[in-house]
Design a protein that fits this description.
The protein is of the alpha+beta class. It has 19 helices and 33 strands. The strands form eight sheets. The protein has a seven-stranded parallel beta sheet with strand order 14-15-13-16-18-28-31, sandwiched between helices. A hairpin with a 4-residue loop joins strand 20 (441-445) and strand 21 (450-452). It is globular. The chain starts with 5 loop residues before the first helix and ends with a helix. 51% of the residues are buried.
Length: 826
């Protein structure tokens, strides 16, 4: 009994649900004990307290709790709990986010909720379909693509009666009508960007760059090797190299020892004569009229897919026509154009620039593509900062950005923020379609490993039903709480998780572009699963093609993670055991970025809807950062989004065939439309007060925002909430707060927003309507105003004074919060 260490044995038996597994555990431990080789990792530490006296570490205290094991079970049920400390005297359980510092303390027992047995899948990898658990450098999806190319080169044709898209191991890639590989990739709506027989990839080297290296040394050598193999548009950003690799070179790259991994660079935009709808909804029109600000001497940079390089036919307008119609300035600086991928080439960047130009017509505008991988994106942000941008805004989301760690693009956004550049990013259009949980061992085996139990209660549910209509796609990104090799090097992921789609007979549906089965150990804690229902599956016994499928998460190898999370990118969310969690991730979740949600312009106060109403698709926060860029476990609470801006506004061409307000111009929906308009207001404020720091600018925008309601909760959410942030942007109030802040900093007696007139060179304001206007008119004519009129003026002044006093009191409270945020003193 002493040799077996009963505590460890009890814990293993406790987490096993199958009697057969319990017997297996006993036999294995007994055999190891007899050999003198069993040295288990302790599940708990006695006499140790985790992160004492740290309010951020504690989630809550539960009492009474009967044992350390019961405390661990409580931690397992809480997604934000990663560690626990149990007080044996008080029978109290402390649920914690952090472990460090670890302090000796008698009577306490501490541990981690991830203390479960390490799993090794029973499946033989040699029996798996091509690309699943592929052991070369290529991801599974790219390995299947490489084999598809090989079959195509051999001239394979589909046998009569076989399916038009291949199931893998052995299969045929060509359809009877001999569609090209690119046409079939488009037909399946897969998560690849393929053009001219090149695929957009991200390459992670086996060895990290040398200290302080930025594209030299090993990375330059690897870049040259790949250039020799036909790589195009190669871009290096620290630990990443991105570019367009020939399909025929995939197999060669697969065997390179200098490469840790190669995966598709997957991204999309957050989109869902230009009119003034956005200006009006944000009161930017009133700000320009009152203070004569138009963005002079301010540079605004946009990062998106393309500017004037549409991939597919003709737009309603091109850039030259927009310039001629005064919907764009003639001098937009194009630092790098995009448009090389099938998903790119929408000219969404030009639509964003139109919206900025409509609000800040005198700002200098610049553009850099994000099309080309995360390295191009990150270097584009840095290039715009070097160009002299005061404000940068983007609307791109890459699927290969980590949920729990700041990757290359997030680090670039924070870098330029620290250099004094304001950064705005579209929050995303995923609403709250996310699932997160601790991995619960169901005791059942799936195709690739032990199945996760989706049911948080005593029941067991190993499959989440999903609905995928014929001709539509389902796509999700899975991360778990382990540091990424591509971000911080080191050991990479210790666990190998998979996300698999099954049919009604519980057979995996491995298609050409379905992912979810990549090896992760020593790489990144990432899986992307994409499934396109082409109508060829009919196994459920019902008439017609199947539309009901089943999602499973499986632990193939390694320890179970303490937290895993998937975010829906396409398709319907599961109806069972779905947690509706945060969906803001990646660079828009960065420390220095303002994440912008969306409200339709017609659902805002200037259009007689108060408060503004959030779009149902607008992404929600918060997603906490759990690892530093160098891989250390941390807890960084990112309270997102910060602001909401308008969408549904007009452009000259984007989005085609969507004119829901019948103005004759297309409506631009999504947070992609909201973010550039908020960035344009920032440009107005920087013209008004060029001395504003970025933190002061952010504070002026957020503190002045109109409070909104999180429509997913029962009551009105006063103040910040994780769906609407601080609220809908108000350009006029933001300007007043900015002026007030700068005035107090200069010590010139303060700024009076009520009596403030237009800036230098502006027209003198006309008298206000009402009795005061009549008095002013009488005074100008030399006539004495009547006593009755004077009484009306006094009453009117009394009402105004009362209103101003109320507003001043509210403004003073806001100003104090503003000064505190800005790091200044009143």
């Amino acid at each position: 009994a002493g040799c077996l260490r009963l505590g460890g044995l009890f814990h293993s038996l406790f987490l096993s649900k199958s009697p057969m597994q319990r017997l297996q555990v006993v036999l294995v431990l007994a055999s190891l004990c007899c050999l003198g080789a069993y040295t288990p990792v302790p599940c708990v530490e006695e006499g140790v307290d985790y992160a004492p006296n740290d309010a951020d570490a504690d989630i809550r205290v539960e009492t009474p709790i009967s044992s350390p094991e019961a405390c661990q079970r409580a931690c397992e049920k809480e997604t934000q709990c990663f560690f626990f400390t149990y007080d044996t005297q008080r029978k109290a359980c402390f649920l914690k986010r952090l472990q460090e510092p670890r302090v000796e303390a008698a009577g306490l027992v501490s541990g981690t909720k991830a203390c479960v047995k390490t799993h090794t899948a029973a499946v033989q990898e040699a029996d798996l379909p091509t690309g699943v658990k592929h052991r070369g450098a290529l991801s599974g999806a790219l390995a299947r693509l490489a084999e598809a190319v090989a079959f195509e080169e051999e001239g394979a044709v589909r046998p009569e009666g076989s399916k038009p898209y291949p199931f893998w191991g052995k299969g045929h890639v060509s359809r009877e009508d001999r569609l090209s590989l690119e046409q079939r990739l488009m037909a399946t709506r897969g998560p690849h960007h393929v053009r001219d027989r090149h695929v957009l990839v991200e390459v992670v080297p086996s060895a990290p760059p040398s200290e302080g290296e930025e594209g030299g040394g090993q990375m330059e050598e690897l870049k040259q090797v790949l250039l020799d193999k036909g790589l195009k548009n190669a871009t290096v950003a620290r630990r990443l190299l991105t570019g367009w690799l020939p399909l025929e070179a995939l197999k060669e790259v697969d065997s390179l020892k200098t490469v840790n991994s190669v995966r598709p660079a997957l991204y999309r935009t957050n989109r869902g004569l230009v009119s003034a709808q956005g200006r009006k909804s944000m009161r930017a029109d009133m700000l320009t009229k009152r203070l004569n600000v138009t963005g002079k001497n301010v540079k605004v940079g946009v990062v998106s897919d393309t500017y004037d390089n549409f991939c597919c036919g003709e737009h309603l307008t091109n850039a030259q026509q927009d310039i001629e119609n005064d919907d764009l300035p003639a001098d937009v600086d194009i630092l790098m154009e995009g448009g090389y991928s099938l998903a790119g080439g929408s000219d969404e960047g030009r639509a964003m620039l139109q919206l900025i130009y409509d609000i800040a017509s005198d700002a200098k505008l610049g553009f850099h593509t994000a099309d080309g991988g995360t390295a191009v994106f990150a270097q584009g942000i840095r290039a715009l900062a070097e160009w002299g941008a005061d404000v940068i805004v983007d609307d791109i989301v890459y699927f290969t950005e980590s949920f729990f760690q700041d990757g290359e693009v997030a680090q670039a956004a924070t870098e330029v923020y620290k250099q004094g550049v304001a950064y705005f990013s579209a929050a995303g259009n995923m609403a709250d379609e996310s699932y997160e949980s601790v991995f619960r061992d169901s005791g059942e085996e799936g195709q690739l490993g032990v199945l996760h139990d989706f049911d948080p209660s005593d029941g067991v549910t190993v499959y989440q039903p999903i609905k995928v209509p014929v001709g539509e796609s389902w796509m999700a990104i899975l991360n778990w709480d382990q540091a990424w090799f591509s971000v911080s090097g080191g050991e990479g992921s210790a666990s190998d998780l998979d996300m698999i789609v099954y049919d009604a007979k519980k057979t995996p549906v491995y298609y050409l572009l379905a992912g979810g089965g990549d090896p992760n150990i020593g790489r990144d804690a990432l899986e992307v699963t994409a499934f396109f229902n082409d109508g060829t599956i009919d196994v459920d016994g019902k008439p017609g093609p199947d539309t009901d499928f089943f999602l499973a998460i499986e632990l193939h190898q390694g320890p179970a993670p303490g937290l895993m999370k998937y975010i829906m990118m396409e398709g319907e969310a599961p109806k069972e055991h779905f947690t509706f969690s945060s969906t803001i991730f990646g660079h828009c979740n960065a420390e220095g970025a303002i994440a912008v949600g969306a409200a339709e312009y017609s659902q805002t106060s200037p259009f007689n809807v108060t408060p503004a109403v959030i779009e149902p698709h607008s992404s929600v926060g918060p997603t906490n950062i759990l690892f530093s860029p160098n891989g250390d476990r941390i807890l960084d609470k990112r309270m997102k989004p910060e602001l909401v801006g308008p969408d549904g506004v007009d452009t000259t061409f984007f989005i085609p065939d969507r004119d829901e307000d019948n103005t004759g111009f297309p409506n631009f929906y999504g947070t992609s439309a909201a973010a550039p308009q908020v960035a344009a207001v920032a440009a107005l404020l920087l013209e008004l007060e060029p001395g504003l720091t970025v933190d002061e600018l952010y504070a002026a925008l957020t503190e002045s925002a109109q409070d909104m309601d999180n429509t997913a909760t029962a009551k009105f959410d006063v103040g910040f909430d994780t769906r609407t942030g601080h609220g809908f942007i108000d350009a006029e109030k933001a300007a007043d707060l900015a002026k007030q802040l700068m005035s107090e900093r200069r010590g010139d007696g303060g700024y009076d927003a009520v009596s403030m007139q237009a800036g230098a060179g502006a027209e003198v304001a006309t008298p206000p309507p009402g009795a005061a206007a009549d008095v002013a008119a009488g005074d100008a004519s030399g006539e004495e105003p009547s006593e009755e009129l004077l009484n009306e003026v006094l009453e009117e002044k009394k009402r105004v004074d009362e209103s101003v006093n109320r507003e001043n009191k509210q403004d003073d409270q806001k100003r104090r919060r503003l000064m505190k945020k800005a790091g200044s003193h009143i």
